[in-house]
Design a protein that fits this description.
With 96 residues, this protein is mainly α. It has a domain of 62 residues. The chain is 79% helix and 0% strand. It is built from 5 helices and no strands. α3 runs antiparallel to α4. The radius of gyration is 16 Å and the shape is elongated.
């Protein structure tokens, strides 16, 4: 599971919507959501670059494996971030 999905799952455990209507609103990203997603795309891209360097250059196998897992997590988050931007009516390529 990507880090975005883990964070959303954790948030859903501790945040209870005030009403069913509020819960329905969570599925419609706002302009602020799109802005956040657009900021996270280059953040993830640089994280992927750093993790790839660690995956090949780290001194221990444990760190190399953690870095490989980080690459996979962040790569799996990128389509979700683009989806949030598109769902808010924005162009993901123009937003990043």
């Amino acid at each position: 599971m990507g880090s975005l999905k883990r964070a959303a799952a954790k948030a859903s455990e501790i945040v209870t919507p005030a009403s069913d209507a509020a819960a329905a609103d969570l599925g419609e990203p706002s302009a602020a959501d799109a802005t956040w997603a657009a900021i996270m795309i280059p953040h993830h891209e640089s994280g992927i670059q750093m993790a790839r360097m660690a995956a090949t250059n780290a001194a221990t196998e444990a760190l190399r494996n953690a870095a490989k897992a980080s690459v996979a997590d962040q790569e799996s988050d990128l389509p979700e971030l683009h989806k949030i931007i598109r769902a808010a009516g924005k162009d993901p390529d123009a937003a990043s």
